[in-house]
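ENTRY TYPE: protein
WANTED: fold as tokens:
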Amino acid sequence: MIEFSPRAGYRQTTATVEEIPVGGQAITALYYAGAPDAPCLVHVHGKGGNAVSGPSRFLPQLLHDVAHLAVNMRCRDLAYTRYDIPLRDFTSGDPSVGGGYWEDLDEGRDDVTAAVATARARGHSRVVVVGHSSGGFYAGMVADQLDEHEAVVLLSPITDNRRALKWWFPDADERAAALKRARSLVAAGDGATLLPLSRWYWAISAASLVQRADEPEGIWPQTLAAAHVPVLLLAGGDESRAADWRHMAEELPNGRGHSAIIDGADHFYVGREDKVAEAVRSFVEAI
């Protein structure tokens, strides 16, 4: 059991550590119990994040009537070592090394699916998947697995993993060369080898780079549109894509899309956490 001291105006929270089996491993999560029969918010962190970063650092303290399950995915942080397994070789794909550098998009979807199953197994009849940034990508990709009385909250979501390729490699020839090398490493069985990036997040494995390049175009909006659950798209007003996210919500069929733009907020909503909590609370109470 872990106790979190509150910030000013926040409520002190207590969480238990959950182990969630998935893919022959066990990922960890923090479970904050809510009122009886309360919905459970499953928090999915962004790139380089973990169970106590992003919105899961403040929503459990501000929304204490509902339950929360904040997940440490296999792509948590940027790199970490599992100390329960002897470390042998960083480049061998050894399971003792994990993190965002080696992020596998399929594994990410499996992690979120397992977390949803864990929340349901705890007796929560309503699950709301709350994904921030790249966690929003995974939240959208599992939306079609949810029941109609459940929901998705997308906080400044990544909607396309291919988009980062042009950001990391603005020059087309440079991008082609990087992908050629990455594909060669994957073919040789060295997909875990890290390749340098000139911008955040500074490195990526060959296999992860190839997976992004090969992601089917439009897969995220197509999956979200095919789901039958209510969706809240929330963004900070200072973000460059705020209008795009609002438009995405408006385009969802059957009036399922809702949007909230938090004035004066950045990608991490620093100083505007209470407004984020109000928007999420109103959405959850209405579903």
Summary: The chain has two domains: 2-77+97-160+217-286, 162-214.
